[in-house]
Amino acid sequence: MDKETVATISYLSRLAFDKQNEEKITRDLENIIKFVDQLDSIDTSDIEPLKSPLEKTAKTREDKISAQNRKEQFLKNAPDANDDYFLVPRVVE
Q1: What is the pLDDT of residue 61?
Q2: CB 10 within 8 A of CB 22
Q3: DSSP code of residue 81
Q4: Half-sphere exposure of 72 (CA within 13 A, CB side)
Q5: How far apart are CA 48 and CA 13, in angstroms?
Q6: What is the pLDDT of residue 31?
Q7: Rounded Cα gap, residues 70 and 66, in angstroms
Q8: Which entry of 25, 36, 77, 92 is 20 to 30 Å from 11 by CA?
Q9: What's the pTM?
Q10: What are φ and ψ of residue 86, in 5° steps?
């Protein structure tokens, strides 16, 4: 990866890099490309391709209530409230 390639990538991605960081960015991009190249070495011959990522089913769990209803406690601490809601001054007429 050379400076011209880094300049092209930064232009296409609408990023501005300092000239001081150009060498570090070049090394980082090379490391990213090497990392992605590792994916080619993985044997995926036994894996069926997905037609959609939604084909997997979500894990389900039993729907249990785990929190206590503390509405009365919260409303008691409010400056102004009725039986069910906090009362606030009208902002929009």
Answers
A1: 85
A2: no
A3: B
A4: 2
A5: 33
A6: 93
A7: 12
A8: 36
A9: 0.44
A10: -75, 140
